[in-house]
Q: What sequence folds into this?
């Protein structure tokens, strides 16, 4: 994420962050979003967002 | 002043003394209140010391013991609550100026359950601001200090809980864990801390950081003491939408079964990046100990583990959603660091949040597959020992990538247990993670390792 993109997002979200802290926030967001932007969502179209945590104990399965 | 041995006794030992009337809960509580008065001015672990309440609880425990009531192993045990757990009639600040005067009308479910178990509430323990922002100098609530080195952080966000346990001011504490806030302080303070399975312990009456990542759980000086606390805390709660109806097993009885035949998986990727050599050495020695105890240890792969950093996108977005109104109306009541972290969450797009949740589903599936082949995973809890305050107060200090967040993503039970010290005397910690709702095995592995070592018996010079 560039500083310009960060400023665009701030404008769209009506969020103000001090100019001298933009680089720190840019780094935080870049790290958080890196795996998301690296993901090709077409690779597994049936993969759904995880929102539940059901379990089958004996097999260690996690429901989705 | 009572002896150090008393303050560093385990819940099991002190409980036994109380039940055979060799020690009075009132006497024990008074000794702890004196210790807090002596030590807390330099540790800042407590926001509020509830001396009157503690003595009332202790007298009630004494009366119960007098009636022959020995049903609860926690009866008369002095503990503390992280200050994001609502306490009826008692200040609950969340470490925030926004809630500096908030006195809740109700108790959290966890608090209620510990009270029913007969514990003695010594007070409320400092948390990082809303469990996410470090208190900088000048903040209304000063940051807790690490008893092993006062110039270092005790970890967070359950910072007061970690500091109070390591300094012998409480026997147990409530923590909460969204990305490692139980296990991080446990690691940095040389104590034990369990993040149970998502839904195992109620979040009702606990301030939210991130709905789908928040967990509540116990912290103590030994794994067995965590098991006693978990036994009282675990179970369905209709007041928590994420609460599970999974039956609650006996967590204490199976602790002594050892680890012979258990399979321990070690995911080498991700969890060792940037690791401190002394931490790595301590961890490898812990694996050797587990092998000697009869476990088999093998490397395992979690193919998508490098995407676990998406955890932060979920936490930031959910935290912003929770705090947005207050952030916009009262920004001055948030610490500078917390404010900018929360505002960063407002810059994450809806589609990015959804993709992060899809990554989470993939990680859940992959970890489930690995946990069909092995019984638990082992990793270092934190790749580095506790940082100094000078490091974290540096304006360019970023949010550290830890080894704990992946298990908040996947909701799996994860335990931090001491596994050594650096040459400069800072604690090192082993993280043991298990299958959903299989806290029993996680605790059993941790307890067996702990009993074979003496790290948990070392205490800071206060």
A:
């Amino acid at each position: 994420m560039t500083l310009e993109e960060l400023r665009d997002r701030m404008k769209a979200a009506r969020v103000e962050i001090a100019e001298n802290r933009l680089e720190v926030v840019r780094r935080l967001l870049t790290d958080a979003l890196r795996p998301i932007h690296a993901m090709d969502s077409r690779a597994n179209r049936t993969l759904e967002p995880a929102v539940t945590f059901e379990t089958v104990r004996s097999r260690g399965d996690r429901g989705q | 002043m009572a002896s150090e041995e008393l303050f560093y006794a385990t819940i099991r030992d002190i409980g036994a003394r109380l039940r055979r009337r060799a020690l009075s809960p009132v006497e024990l509580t008074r000794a702890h209140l004196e210790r807090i008065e002596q030590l807390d001015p330099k540790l800042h672990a407590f926001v509020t010391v509830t001396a009157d309440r503690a003595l009332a609880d202790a007298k009630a425990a004494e009366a119960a013991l007098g009636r022959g009531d020995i049903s609860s192993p926690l009866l008369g045990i002095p503990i503390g609550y992280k200050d994001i757990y609502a306490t009826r009639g008692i200040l609950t600040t969340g470490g925030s100026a926004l809630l500096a005067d908030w006195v809740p009308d109700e108790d959290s479910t966890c608090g209620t359950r510990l009270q029913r178990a007969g514990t003695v509430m010594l007070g409320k323990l400092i948390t990082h601001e809303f469990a996410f922002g470090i208190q900088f100098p000048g903040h209304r609530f000063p940051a807790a200090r690490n008893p092993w080195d006062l110039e270092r952080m005790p970890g967070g966000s359950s910072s007061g809980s970690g500091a109070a346990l390591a300094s012998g001011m409480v026997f147990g504490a409530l923590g909460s864990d969204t990305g490692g806030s139980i296990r991080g302080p446990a690691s940095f303070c040389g104590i034990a801390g369990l993040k149970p399975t998502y839904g195992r312990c109620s979040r009702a009456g606990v301030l939210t950081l991130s709905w789908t990542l928040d967990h509540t759980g116990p912290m103590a000086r030994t794994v067995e003491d965590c098991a006693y606390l978990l036994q009282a805390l675990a179970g369905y709660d209709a007041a928590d939408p994420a609460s599970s109806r999974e039956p609650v097993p006996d967590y204490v009885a199976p602790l002594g079964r050892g680890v012979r035949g258990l399979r321990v998986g070690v995911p080498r990727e991700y969890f060792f990046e940037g690791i401190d050599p002394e931490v790595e050495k301590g961890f490898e020695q812990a694996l050797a100990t587990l092998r000697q105890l009869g476990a088999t240890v093998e490397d395992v792969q979690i193919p998508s583990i490098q995407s676990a950093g998406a955890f932060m996108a979920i936490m930031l977005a959910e935290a912003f959603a929770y705090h947005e109104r207050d952030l916009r109306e009262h920004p001055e009541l948030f610490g500078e660091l917390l404010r900018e972290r929360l505002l960063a969450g407002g810059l994450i797009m809806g589609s990015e949040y959804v993709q992060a949740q899809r990554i989470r589903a993939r990680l859940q599936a992959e970890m489930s597959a690995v946990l069909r082949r092995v019984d638990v995973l082992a990793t270092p809890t934190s790749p580095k020992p506790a940082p100094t305050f000078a490091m974290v107060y540096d304006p360019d200090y970023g949010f550290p990538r830890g080894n704990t967040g992946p298990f908040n993503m996947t909701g799996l039970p994860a335990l931090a247990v001491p596994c050594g010290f650096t040459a400069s005397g800072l604690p090192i910690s082993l993280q043991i993670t298990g299958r959903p709702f299989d806290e029993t095995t996680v605790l059993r592995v941790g307890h067996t390792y702990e009993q074979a070592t003496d790290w948990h018996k070392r205490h800071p010079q206060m």
In short: Residues 350-373 of chain B form the longest helix (24 residues). Residues 83 and 253 of chain B are 31 Å apart (CA to CA).
